[in-house]
Design brief:
Elements lengths: L18 E4 H4 E6 L5 E3 L5 E3 L17 E3 L16 E4 L8 E3 L7 E3 L3 E6 L5 H6 L4 H10 L10 H5 L2 E4 L2 H40 L13 E4 L4 E5 L14 E4 L11 E3 L8 E2 L4 E4 L5 E4 L5 E3 L3 E6 L6 H10 L1 H4 L13 H5 L2 E4 L2 H39 L2
Parallel strand pairs: 4-8, 13-18
Antiparallel strand pairs: 1-10, 2-9, 3-5, 6-7, 6-9, 11-20, 12-19, 13-14, 15-18, 16-17, 16-19
Helix pairs in contact: 5-9, 6-9
Length: about 400
């Protein structure tokens, strides 16, 4: 079939129209994987299942490597080769894809995956990148519909239509996206390492195993309510929340999705507003502190604003300590329909109280580390956005 079309963005020197081909025309074979259980990793033979493929990067997630429980002398056909593609054929992750690289080691693939070997005159990386496009997502959404759990079999995958340029252009596009994926993976690893480093420092500093130079006094235990006032937000009725208005109404969900804001024209007492730099605490459904760094908003009932009652308590230090307390506080929650922590429980909590000078040191250290994590997370998010933009312009 020769439906000749061209993408919006191309490498210089390429002008020929692309041809529409079916995936089955590009492959030598579609092969189902091993029907074998997993066992403890033997140090050599790796086993890849649907759950071992990272949802976003599609890399082999090696956090919990296993081996297939088989006789390897008769399993050569299930060993992945360079540029082999895998497709998930059933379940909630149907359509998830993976491309094998030699750096992944000796890998065998499981039964709910389909292996595809691309013919030499087509580029495997180019075909793989097609699985990140909206065209592929729509194909999976429509084709996977079943009366039971969703699924796409080998014959159906073979019918997926891909627009193909010359091999040279395929290779250039495939190489570009491979480099972009590798750069994204490196940045993801950097963010993960920074987060792990932060957790290690939190444990070491708040256990006083690690101290800043010049500080040796024991930390005191104080009640949180002696130093902090927990101010309730405004309890809005749904009818009072507007689509437009003078003030945004900050709710718990806005910290996670930020996709729907309500507004209000009400003029309230000043303590009902959160301004830039205010320390807030989410006490229902989700738990933990947040430092508000945007424009003035009215904060909702399920959020407290924390007012410091004593100059001997540093806000950044308090925020950091509350971060360490997030998991512990869950053991003291109430409610069945809406899990929450009470104000009295927070006021009675014992917290570690070093000198104000050491608090400032600790707070500043973790603020710098948080800023570094945020900066690298922003770089990572930008790389992901760039890939999505390139996918829309460089594929048909």
């Amino acid at each position: 079939m020769t439906d000749k079309t061209m993408p919006a963005l191309r490498f210089r020197g390429f002008y020929d129209a692309w041809e529409q081909r079916k995936l089955g025309e590009l492959t030598n074979s579609f092969e189902y994987g091993l029907n074998a259980s997993a066992k403890k990793f033997d140090g050599i033979h790796k086993y890849i299942r649907i759950t071992d493929i990272d949802d976003s990067s599609r890399k082999f997630n090696s956090d919990s490597i296993t081996s297939p429980d088989i006789d390897f002398s008769s399993a050569d056909n299930y060993e992945l080769k360079l540029n082999d593609l895998l497709f998930a054929r059933t379940g909630a992750s149907v359509g998830k894809s993976y491309i094998y690289t030699e750096s992944d080691g000796l890998v065998y693939y499981a039964g709910f995956l389909i292996r595809v070997r691309i013919k030499p005159k087509f580029d495997s990386n180019f075909v793989f990148q097609n699985t990140f496009t909206s065209t592929y997502e729509n194909f999976i959404r429509i084709t996977s519909q079943r009366s039971g759990q969703p699924g796409v079999n080998a014959k159906e995958y073979a019918g997926f239509e891909i627009n193909i340029p010359s091999l040279e252009e395929q290779q250039m596009i495939g190489s570009l996206f491979k480099q972009l994926d590798n750069l994204t993976a490196q940045n993801e690893q950097k963010v993960d390492l920074l987060k792990q480093l932060k957790q290690a420092y939190l444990q070491q500093i708040f256990s006083q195993e690690l101290r800043f130079a010049g500080f040796s006094d024991d930390w005191e235990q104080r009640k949180l309510g002696e130093y902090v006032n927990f101010l309730n937000g405004r309890a809005y009725k749904q009818t009072e929340l507007l689509d437009k208005g003078r003030y945004r109404v900050l709710r718990v969900g806005n910290f996670n999705t930020n996709d729907r804001w309500y507004y209000s024209d009400l003029e309230l007492e000043q303590h009902k507003y959160a301004n830039k730099g205010d320390l807030l605490y989410l006490w229902a459904t989700n738990f933990g502190p947040e430092i508000w760094n945007e424009e003035k908003v009215i904060y909702h009932y399920h959020i407290w604003k924390l007012e410091l009652l004593n100059n001997n308590l540093n806000k950044q230090y308090l925020y950091t300590w509350l971060m360490t307390d997030k998991e512990r506080i869950k053991q003291n929650t109430n409610g069945t329909t809406m899990v929450h922590v009470t104000k009295r429980n927070m006021e009675q909590r014992d917290f570690q109280f070093p000198s104000i000078e050491e608090q400032i040191k600790v707070g500043s250290f973790f603020k710098q580390l948080d800023n570094l994590i945020t900066l690298n997370q922003q770089k990572l998010n930008l790389l992901k956005k760039q890939k999505q933009a390139f996918l829309k312009k460089m594929f048909i």
